[in-house]
Amino acid sequence: MRKYSKIYKIKPREKRGRFWVLSFFAGIFAIQMGCSLCCSSEPIQFETVFSYLISQLSYLVLPLVPLHLAIYLLHFRKANYDLKTFNKFFARINMKTKAGVSVLVMSIFLLIVLDDESKLENGKLLDLVIQSIAAAVAVMLFDCLKIQRNAVEDEGVVARAKHHVAPGLAVAYFRYIENVVKGAYEEDGTEISKPHEEALHEYIKENEIGSVRDWVSKKILILFPESDQIRGTVQEIAKREKEDGENHCLTLDPITHKYFSSGQPRTSVLNVIKIKDNEIKIPYSCSEGCFRNPLLKSKSIDCDQIQMHNRESLLGVTPSGLCEKIHERKEWQNNYVIFAENRPLNTLYQMVDAPDSQISFTRKDFEVQFKLYYAELKRLIEEDDVCKNKVELFLYHDYEHKKSGNFSKNLKNKILEMKMRDQKDN
Fold this sequence. Notes:
The chain is α/β, with parallel strands linked by helices. It has helices at residues 17-39, 46-61, 64-78, 83-89, 95-113, 122-145, 151-160, 166-182, 196-207, 234-239, 294-297, 305-315, 343-353, 363-383, 406-425, and strands at 184-185, 191-193, 214-226, 248-250, 255-261, 264-285, 326-340, 391-397.
């Protein structure tokens, strides 16, 4: 089994590296300026430092003009000298950014080619042309070697693309969840499948799990395990019951919903996980001899009856030797969590495992589609007034060792979160 890096550790950096790169260049520039000023024979004054700073900055920005011109010419050639195609290359760049760069380039151009008397210098213009040709050659070389490409930008482009596997999977799965939550009806209003709330009430009555010791989740959980091996299927959850540290189990009776799709009868299954967590105290009336006095068993009792009666009253014991007090016994609370198997996620895993001869779908592609599928399904559920109160996505990390009880631990934390939310709502 191949090992993969964790999904939550390979998220795109979202331009967080810009700060460090700019800080590095600013530090180098400051060191270079400081060394030049310290080695200078002239006294250090504010006007001297300011003029030197401006001169150094002007040298730094001078290459921007030929580089800007070279990039535009290269993309114009790529567009086969068609302006409409050329504009599409820069359509994703913000308008304010493009306008700011254009104004800056024009200002630097005037600074380069004009002399002190604001007249055009032929020598400076010739130097600019030579620099532009050199910049064009460098840009073409970078483009041919693909040096300017990087994984972070590629992931961003893929995420912004319109055509994906993930949104389609999310829409199809949401329609299934919507039928389960709201129920299915014929055109004349005849009920085909009951809404989830009614089906859940019947399930609780049939299985007699409505006591104080039982807690049943009102929401349907959809499992999203971030893992290199675990997929969150029903078979895997049942298999993990036997592993060390796990204390969950799948119930034998799932919640079923019947409906028709394309004229064919279908049955949707919501599985139920049972897990124990909180220790609760149940009051009960004691009818045992838990406080039986050894003297009561003796046939020869030397103390008188009054003293014996007082002693029995103090001990809370009847003359027969049985305790009639109200005690508390510790019991575990049974939690029942209803979840829908995340089959679209299993489809993405199958695409990763498929050989390259069938489909080209790498682990990197899976990680992008995983995040897009989760985000799209979450958006669809939150925008539906009914489903947002009945369905919840459970995103968790499942990279721990098999014998750590990781699934049960994550599920207990989720149950605690849902219970606290229910208390606030009530």
